[in-house]
């Protein structure tokens, strides 16, 4: 089993940017929980069949794929539906993440999980890297990127773990408050550290 670095951070912190730099410069494999979350509800998947069974065929688009907007509205309006959906999908996502980690071939692997802290998934990792930004920067980036108003951006951030909660589980931190910050020097140093840790992990 490879050495696993859990990469997390709040919305608009720059998780994807950091992960892509690890991948493009050092060929480190990325396992992204958001991508897996889409895979487990793909057309004809067990996840989608269960969702259709609960909500009816009108939860699907005309091509038989999931109508994500409609499902999002349903679970937003009904806490019971949200609980049911999480109970269905979280074990599937977790199992697929563990499978992908076990099949990774790079010297260590980045497990990108936006809700790592919220879902208490630190036990899937050997080390946690938090991409940290202040809330004002998060708000501005979220409003610009997602074309939402201040109130909606604040609600999204409030629904996530607090900045202090994320930092409390961090082994490593990259501060990404500045626009167009050159992240590569920090990532290079972390890469060296993770290589050393992964070597030690394999020799045990």
From TrEMBL:
Keywords: ATP-binding, Coenzyme A biosynthesis, Cytoplasm, Kinase, Nucleotide-binding, Transferase
Pfam family for this entry, one: CoaE
Location within or outside the cell: Cytoplasm
Metabolic or biological pathway, per its Swiss-Prot or TrEMBL entry: Cofactor biosynthesis; coenzyme A biosynthesis; CoA from (R)-pantothenate: step 5/5
UniProt cross-references to SUPFAM superfamilies, sorted A to Z: P-loop containing nucleoside triphosphate hydrolases
PROSITE patterns linked: DPCK
UniProt KW Kinase keyword: yes
Keyword Isomerase attached: no
GO terms under cellular component: cytoplasm
Binding-site list for ATP: 12-17
Catalytic activity: 3'-dephospho-CoA + ATP = ADP + CoA + H(+)
BP GO annotations: coenzyme A biosynthetic process
Biological role: Catalyzes the phosphorylation of the 3'-hydroxyl group of dephosphocoenzyme A to form coenzyme A.
Family: Belongs to the CoaE family.
Protein name: Dephospho-CoA kinase
Gene this protein is translated from: coaE
């Amino acid at each position: 089993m490879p050495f696993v670095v859990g990469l997390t951070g709040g919305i608009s912190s720059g998780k994807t940017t950091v992960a892509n730099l690890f991948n493009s410069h050092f060929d480190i494999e990325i396992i992204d929980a958001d991508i897996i979350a889409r895979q487990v509800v793909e057309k004809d998947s067990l996840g989608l069949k269960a969702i259709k069974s609960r909500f009816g065929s009108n939860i699907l688009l005309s091509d038989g794929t999931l109508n994500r907007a409609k499902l999002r509205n349903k679970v937003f309006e009904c806490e019971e539906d949200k609980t049911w959906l999480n109970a269905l999908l979280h074990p599937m996502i977790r199992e697929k993440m563990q499978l992908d980690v076990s099949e990774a071939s790079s010297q260590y692997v980045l497990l990108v999980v936006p809700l790592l802290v919220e879902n208490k998934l630190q036990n899937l990792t050997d080390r946690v890297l938090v991409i940290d930004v202040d809330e004002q920067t998060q708000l501005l980036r979220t409003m610009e990127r997602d074309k939402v108003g201040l109130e909606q951006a604040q609600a999204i951030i409030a629904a996530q773990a607090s900045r202090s909660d994320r930092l409390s589980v961090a082994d490593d931190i990259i501060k990404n408050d500045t626009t167009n910050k050159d992240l590569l020097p920090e990532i290079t140093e972390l890469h060296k550290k993770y290589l050393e840790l992964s070597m030690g992990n394999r020799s045990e």
